[in-house]
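Q: Sequence in, structure out?
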Amino acid sequence: MDSDLALVVGLIVAGLSVISFLSALSERRSLRAALPSMLLAAAFLSYAWFTSPAGYSISDIDDVFYGVVARFLP
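A: Exactly. Output:
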């Protein structure tokens, strides 16, 4: 898995886990689903951070996201 793909997957999982976390907090449920997904997102993002040769900046995220999506769409 290259670092660009790991970054995109990590960002998507992080977005979904924030939604799950806020939903669990608002309904006063346990965080059994939100915490493992947050750890998974942190693992993907840290893998992308440490394996990228040039690193990432905030302005690079949209180019990386579109590049990964373009690789998988015909």
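The longest helix spans residues 3-26.
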